[in-house]
Amino acid sequence: MDSAKLQKLVDNREKAIAGGGEAAVAKHHAKGCYTCRERINMLLDEGSFEEVNMFLTHRCHDFGMDKKVFLGDGVAVGSGTIDGRLVYVFAQDATVIGGSLSETMALKICNVMDQAMKMGAPIIGLNDSGGARIQEGACALAGYAEIFERNILASGVVPQISVIFGPCAGGAVYSPALTDFIMMTEQNSYMFITGPKVVKSVTGEDVTVEQLGGANVHATKSGVTHFVAPTEEEAMNMVRKLVSFIPQNNMEEAPMVACDDDPMRIEDALNEIVPADPNKPYNMKDIINLIVDNGDFFEVQKDYAKNIICGFAHFNGRSTGIIANQPSWLAGVLDCDASRKAARFVRFCDAFNIQILTLVDVPGFLCGTGQEYAGIIDHGAKLMFAYGEATVPKVTVTVRKSYGGSHIVMSCKQLRGDMCYAWPNAEIAVMGASGAVGVLQAKELKAIEDPEAKKKFIAEKEAEYKELFASPYQAANRGYIDDVIEPRNTRARIVNAFEKLQTKRLSNPAKKHSNIPL
Q: Tell me: the pLDDT tens digits for 74-88?
């Protein structure tokens, strides 16, 4: 082999890896950021990354671009492994023309996405881009559209994860928005349709980059991001953990892990964890931590719509999606945001064959003009649709309250919940006892003038209503609850139910696609 040709190969690889050059890389490091390949190496198993298309360059000659040619053109793409499992990765390089998207960069990203679809492996995008490369005009826009179309076609086929490490603006935000999970970092991570300057010129608002599209905003207000990490290193660890819960594609089962936690473990603390006063709050996460394998719960969107909890855990080593009402936040009511959050999570689990556990303590839907005007009817219907459409194993445990329409949408028997359990103190009814007595005994209450007598009458009727209509046995008598269980046995009953449901076979009617209320 000609040594000069070998040397040329080595030199070209070094040029590609150098990105925008030493000065640009130093400037990037000075911000506390890693380069695209440093990020890839943090994410993947050591030595597993195989890069492709390293020598591609852009084809633009306008606006002096013929003098700004970099091998790889601002993105590193290829495949590697996470805990030995194949994944495909693209990582934008902000040191090359700001990481702006060109026709060539889009081609590289699309190629790796096509490979991921063919091989049935997750796609992980590490985003750090200033947006479309203005010098390329319509070609850059077409490149975005090519990526978006692949995001759409890959949805529900292979898992898609987006990590935002820098600016993500304009058209660039839509690819992450089309993926299954978005992760941002507390520093240097931003997402918005238009930046502060444009906002100021159009609406007159004075807003900072952080206020407009920082990680905290999207974690707490918009719900756009599912995870926030303090550092890039922690972000990569979170991605690796997320991948551990999900299958390679929609044709595979979620991965099993070794379990050293007794599946039949009894938890006596559960018998005392729910307050006797039905209006007193408690933390549902305490229950979750006591029943999952080794207390390991990986929460999704933990700072958004806190009245409902979503996340992953294992039961006897099986990956499980958990949806639970949170009585310590807004009493666990369902509102627009909580309904959307839970519905999307249910649909992800169903798309990728992840069994679902639902823990119920819900007093109803949040009322008022604000919620009605925001479309609570449609948002609540999304959650109902998601549960009713899901064909994966579904186990439901009613811990305390389950009233009215909110009872129905939280994976009830009629929405094809496979096994529905209730704790002895559970109340399953159209409404709470206080409201029911006010409606059912309206005439009698009106006739009682003495305040003490009225108070006594209300207490008697509320107790009667709870016994007749709100106890779990009334629902069990009708077959709407499969069993009333002792709280301390909850983990064992859940594990047993899911083990029996592993051979479940259920399919929906043939159709092009459903029309979920959006």
A: 899 999 999 999 999
